[in-house]
Amino acid sequence: MANRSQYTCTHIVNGEAIDTSETFFEHLNPNTATVLTRVPLASPELVNQAVQAAKAAFAEWANTPIVKRSQIFYRYKRLFEDQFAALAQLLSTEHGKNVNEAKGSLRRGLEVIELACSLPAVYKGETLRNVGGGVDYETHRFPLGVCVGITPFNFPAMIPLWMFPISVMAGNTFILKPSPQTPLTSTRLVELAGEAGLPPGVLNIVHGGKEVVDALLTHPDIQAISFVGSTPVARYIYQQGTNAGKRVQASGGAKNYALVMPDAPIDNTVNALISSVFGSIGERCMATSVVIGTDAAIDRILPSLKNVAQQLTLGRTDGQNIPDIGPVVSKEHQERIEGYIQKGVDEGAELILDGRNPFVADAPNGFFVGPTIFDRVAPDMTIAQEEIFGPVLSIIRVNSLQNAIAQINKSPFGNAVVVYTNSGRSAREIQDKAECGMVGINVGVPAPMSLFPFSGWKQSFFGDLHVQSSEGLDFCTKKKVVMKRWFDDDQLNDIVF
Ligand code: NAD
């Protein structure tokens, strides 16, 4: 597979590149609107072939000593680092985010590979001796079997890496089903794992949409499913998967608030907000989508926020240039975001920066939406309630911290809330009262590093155990408790050596 063009997309099953699909999805380069790759769509037979390959590989892989598995992941880490720049360029070309943002996401993925390398240290069980007279207890971890990862378009490396390194290091075999909108980086990650020495069948990738997902959800030889994507699909995956008797962790969409207090440091707050709202073109489940605060707080930061947002550069991301903002992933997504902007106008919000139809000199056909800011958004407006997943900020004005917290907690989503303040008391109030799983204090995007769980709440997560950290390991392993007793009717000095 080493000579495969970087824009050729294939399935990889049992270590072989498979290009026999008869139906394809054409993914367009979002910078140019020309075909970047033809994504093969797996048939139910191919899905079954992948499951059987993973099932066949399981017994030997699960029995491979964990330190040997870890050595393969150390090689994977080295290959990943060698390929870092090429992976970043591929990612920014197929997705549209700029290459620095692509590198940032790869670094977060690398952290999970590093966690996987060190897994033997935490894989160990527990022991408690002499619980009763002569009775000792111990726990042993076991992998589950064939596990699946279904991933969204916005982080085609980081999100697969949330899933398969820990699962495979734990002794499972794995099938990845990435988004057809960004299939190339994910395919390269699987290819690299083979080059690092992962045996055939241990890590497979199949491409496709709902049909492929449904075939995986109901397959009797699959034990666990990790999903990241929009809330309606996350809910569906959780319901279907658990009905079929599988373990499921399903992360959904989000609508993240940033609370700006009147004492927030202006420059640091504006810089953090610019990166959080407009970074990765707003296509992040941890992006700030709503800023909330009193008139005094908002009026302090808004002129500077608008001024910096206006100066962000737009441009193509598939070459040498590094603009601040690249294109969104597809024409459909561009139109969806523009539809939300129009809805904000129609419902009476004050559009103070309009990013529709920007002129982008080096990419006139690209799918661009520029930075957009609405002020005086009412909490019941569509743009305040629904996930837009683009570079669009809504500002809601309230008259107290308590009202801000009440408003934040009305959201059905529960990923992140950030507060900007110099007051420990206000920060603590948010930390304790915000009904969400990840809180940031004076930071842009509080996405946890791999040692902590990616802890969505409410409709941002369906399941019990999140990805990353020891929760990620618990999700993909089961524990056996062994109770031991050796009868003491023989005297020690009777034991014959
Ligand atoms: P999506 O839900 O459309 O797709 C996610 C995956 O599900 C893809 O692999 C897709 O092929 C598959 N899929 C799509 N529709 C399906 C259906 N009807 N039945 C079965 N499978 C289906 O999401 P997306 O547009 O690729 O990604 C953006 C969404 O992901 C946003 O809502 C974002 O908030 C969310 N997201 C969440 C997190 C998180 O950690 N909570 C992280 C990143 C992205």
SSE blueprint:
Elements: E1 11-13, E2 16-18, E3 24-28, E4 35-40, H1 44-63, H2 66-82, H3 84-95, H4 99-117, H5 120-123, E5 127-132, E6 135-143, E7 146-150, H6 158-169, E8 173-177, H7 184-195, E9 203-205, H8 210-217, E10 222-228, H9 231-243, E11 247-251, E12 256-260, H10 266-278, E13 288-293, H11 295-310, H12 331-346, E14 350-353, E15 372-375, H13 382-385, E16 392-397, H14 401-409, E17 413-414, E18 416-420, H15 424-433, E19 438-441, E20 457-458, E21 461-462, H16 469-475, E22 477-485
Helix pairs in contact: 1-8, 2-4, 2-7, 3-4, 4-6, 10-11
The chain binds nicotinamide-adenine-dinucleotide.
Key structural traits:
497 residues, alpha/beta, Aldehyde Dehydrogenase, Chain A, domain 1, Aldehyde Dehydrogenase, Chain A, domain 2, 2 domains, six-stranded mixed beta sheet, 16 helices, globular, binds nicotinamide-adenine-dinucleotide
Q: What count of domains describes the coordinates? A: 2
The shape is globular
Q: What is the CATH C level class of the largest domain, in words?
A: Alpha Beta
Quaternary status: single chain
**Radius of gyration, rounded?**
24 Å
Strand arrangement, major sheet: 14-15-16-13-12-18-19
Please give the count of helices: 16
